Amino acid sequence: xxxxxxxxxxxxxxxxxxxxxxxxxxxxxxxxxxxxxxxxxxxxxxxxxxxxxxxxxxxxxxxxxxxxxxxxxxxxxxxxxxxxxxxxxxxxxxxxxxxxxxxxxxxxxxxxxx
Length: 114
What we know:
Helices cover about 0% and strands about 50% of the residues.
């Protein structure tokens, strides 16, 4: 079955960096565009970044553009989100998803606080 496992979250000070990973299994990873979402309790899940199946095209939410970088390694069935210049408003649970597949991982908590 489709499985997505996010990791790499944690507590970081404003201005710091984190690198999230999404390990995928149970489907042909290299055929799917992938996304990162984030969610704050009580709010809608927000699309953060998207990458196409080959990794040649990316899109970002305006709120993270220029600070976050999405990438993937199809040989490792893994997607990444490099997050730099983190702000307190980036605090959320971050999830990955394969576009078109109805599966979510457990998420990884990112907390930006001094």
